[in-house]
Design brief:
Elements (H helix, E strand, L loop, with lengths): L9 H16 L2 H13 L2 E2 L2 E2 L4
Antiparallel strand pairs: 1-2
Helix pairs in contact: 1-2
The chain binds zinc ion (ZN).
């Protein structure tokens, strides 16, 4: 499996797996939830998330 962007963070990796699983079963509210949580995750191994 390829890791994209800054998914070196264990929590984000978990969220990405959950997002993919939710997408597969068509649970879009959960997909959105995971996307929001991924965007808002504050720290990734000491690197702050780049915000728009
Ligand atoms: Zn993270």
């Amino acid at each position: 499996m390829t890791v994209k962007g800054g998914a070196a963070c264990a929590e984000c990796a978990r969220l990405e797996r959950e997002r993919e699983a939710a997408r597969r079963v068509g649970d879009w509210s959960r997909v959105t939830d995971c996307v929001v949580l991924l965007r808002r995750h504050p720290q990734h191994g000491g690197k702050p998330v780049v915000r728009p």
